[in-house]
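Backbone geometry tokens:
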Amino acid sequence: MKVRLELSSKSIVRLPIAYNYLIQSMIYELIKDRFPDLHDVGFLYQKRKLKLFTFSQIFSQKYQINGQFINFNPPIYVFVSSPIDELISTLTNKMLQMGDIRIGNNYFTLSRVDTIVENFNDNPIKIKAISPITVYTTSEDGHTYYHSPDEEIFSSLIKSNILKKALVLGLNVNEEQFEFCIEPLNFDQKNSRATFYKNFFVKGWIGKFKIGGDKRLLKIALDAGLGAKNSQGFGMILIEEVNLWDF
């Protein structure tokens, strides 16, 4: 289930450039009564803890970067998605009940919720990344290497990640039986994005891609996100024709 949240404020919204942690903290706070173990435990796959939700960057019709901060003109728009429908419904219901919603030092009201329906008949399908897709490997000495969409390993690691999510969601899948591929469209180094989550450097890629394969895996990709660190605000995708906002 995927929703677009329209958040209204009476004043200019001022957030640090690396604001992902603040959005994530808001989500955990609002769903903690229904999902108390999601932050620390999540959904287990072997030794991995999958959170099975993701969220987008913040969108606004007008914004200004001022040093290490961004000033957004309200309203702002945030997409949130999960293959666990109850997680999203819990979040939106709590936001409606609370009235005032806090992100950092800013207070909002939820002025509109749109459910995003992404039906697809084509395969592969064209999508756009609305938060950076991050794919990485870690060496034995602890060095993290972030992979680019023009590397062959990029697609294989994304497929492996989706298969883990599928298994947690109860699908009986294996790498040999189920196909999945991702291809960047109009690849450009300008689509790379570097930011920090807390004090950790993260690099990812936005832009347009083509994904194809088993339809169940495509649906998981749309709902749970592509690549790693989804619950930290990375790897959220939309079918190409979905608008960031409607007027």
Observations:
- The chain is about 20% helix and 35% strand.
- Residues 2-115 form a domain with the Alpha-Beta Plaits fold (CATH 3.30.70.1890).
- The chain has two domains: 2-115, 125-239.
